[in-house]
């Protein structure tokens, strides 16, 4: 049995990925997120798939809480084999109005937390000669769009962190990869759909085709199951030579 820690896994992509791992029945799962019913969400997945779970509401902005979450996970399950840095937030605004506190929160949650958590699991992964770190970046880790300065800086940053950890982890069978999704219909994106509809004065259903999916060749939202399947592949024992990559799963957005 292996143990996986997935940040931001009581919603959206993180929850979808957790379910794909749960289905295999080969992983204990450490859930994390700020949803107030997070413990119930984690318990429900554990019950549905018959796997052991833990829940922590550690805040990505608090390094002490992150270290405690890792230590609690190791106390409960013995080790952490796979870390998925997934928690993230967005804020859309032109640079001149971009609130300073939003910049700091986005860099802290989307990027710096991955540094703290990778550092916290590193020693154990090294000792066990096995580790898989997967960062949920974004198509915006590879290309930019306007009005998302902090988000795009954070996602380009995490692609850089991914490459560095891949090099440092190589002697110890620790791999590190980034998954770069296009648009996925989660609460994070539902909020943007409403905002964009207002900004462009069009209906919410038009936002998908006229605004969001314009850059994707495949005019479909990416599914959380697809992302979960990719994460499972990256986490496998047999994937030791897949490292340092930033894999777009973006309907061809980055092909252009
Ligand atoms: P979501 O809003 O559904 O989930 C985000 C999760 O992060 C939630 O569980 C939330 O509680 C948690 N979180 C936020 N701030 C936190 C904090 N300070 N401490 C602890 N947990 C915190 O969003 P999502 O769409 O599932 O996004 C997950 C990741 O995928 C993010 O990193 C996002 O940037 C990335 N992503 C999303 C899309 C998309 O289209 N939805 C596309 C590319 C990348």
Bound ligands, named by name, code or SMILES: nicotinamide-adenine-dinucleotide
Q: Tell me the domain tally.
A: 2
CATH fold group of the largest domain: Rossmann fold
What is the structural class? Answer: alpha/beta
Topology, number of strands: 7
Low-confidence spans: none
Total helical elements: 8
The appropriate CATH architecture of the largest domain is: 3-Layer(aba) Sandwich
The helix/strand series, from N terminus to C terminus, equals EHEHEHEHEHEHHHE
The CATH class of the largest domain is identified as Alpha Beta
Give a written overview of the molecule.
α1 crosses α8 and α6 crosses α7 (204-212). It is globular and about 55 Å long. Helix content is 49%, strand content 14%. The chain is built from eight helices and seven strands. The longest helix has 29 residues, at 100-128. It folds into two domains: 2-183 and 223-251, Rossmann fold; 185-221, no CATH class. It is of the alpha/beta class. A seven-stranded parallel sheet has the order 3-2-1-4-5-6-7, sandwiched between helices. It has helices at residues 12-24, 38-49, 63-77, 100-128, 149-169, 187-200, 204-212, 224-235; strands at 2-6, 27-32, 53-56, 82-85, 131-136, 174-181, 246-249. The termini are far apart. The site of nicotinamide-adenine-dinucleotide has 27 residues, from α1, α4 and α6.
Explain the layout of strands and helices.
Layout: E1 2-6, H1 12-24, E2 27-32, H2 38-49, E3 53-56, H3 63-77, E4 82-85, H4 100-128, E5 131-136, H5 149-169, E6 174-181, H6 187-200, H7 204-212, H8 224-235, E7 246-249
Parallel strand pairs: 1-2, 1-4, 2-3, 4-5, 5-6, 6-7
